[in-house]
Design goal:
Elements (H helix, E strand, L loop, with lengths): L1 H9 L7 E3 L10 E14 L2 E15 L2 H15 L5 E10 L4 E10 L1
Parallel strand pairs: 1-2
Antiparallel strand pairs: 2-3, 3-5, 4-5
Length: about 110
Amino acid sequence: MIETKINEALKALCDGRVSPLIAPQGTSPPYVCYTKVSAVYDDVMCGQSSVEYCFQIDVYAKTLLEAENIKQQAYESLKPLKPFNIVNRQDYEPEAELYRATLEFYIQ
């Protein structure tokens, strides 16, 4: 399962505070959440030939610099999976008072 590969690649970050979708209530920052945004299947006459997954990695931290540094570590950890079409974003979550660095990418 592709989620297992993503989790294995990221589990060393943030002392293991890595979760699918959302972090458990009370998780202290910094932490990482990952989401499978989509899975697109290529169809051929005899069925499906390949699948392309889109994932989003969100790093939450008290400072933008910390979030960006952890996001870069996440990218380095994911390189063996050969991510492509990479998009980086930044945001601030006022309710949580945390900065967010986002890495979105595709893998096959």
